[in-house]
Amino acid sequence: LGESETSELTPPGPGYRAYRASDPAPIAASGATSVGPVVVHCSAGVGRTGCFIALCIGCEQLRTEDKVDVLGIVSRLRLDRGGMVENSEQYTFLHAALCMYNAIRNGRELPILPAITNLRNQFTGPLR
């Protein structure tokens, strides 16, 4: 949401920021520099929100443990809020995004579009 769109929703306070979901870089940066939790929410607060949170946790697991447990992450999130990561497409996205993140993190070039197409074909058949 733009600043004018959030003025009624924005609680006053130092350091508070609202960002558009289409611009995730400031969200990630604000979490690293701010005191307190980062609040993430989509319309229902489960699908896209769950993906974003799971992706952040998965990236952290890869950085600290050099492995990731997507099922474990989603299961733990669902204990706190049922329905996090709503469907198979979102779950597949998490796997693909974390694979790409890990490849880039390890300095490997990854042709993103062919990788996504290949992954999608494995689950749904050729793109139409």
Automatic annotation (TrEMBL):
Pfam families: Y_phosphatase. One of its GO terms (cellular component) is plasma membrane. The keyword Hydrolase applies. It is an enzyme of class 3 (hydrolase). This is protein-tyrosine-phosphatase. Residues 37-101 form the Tyrosine-protein phosphatase domain. GO terms for molecular function: protein kinase binding; protein tyrosine phosphatase activity.
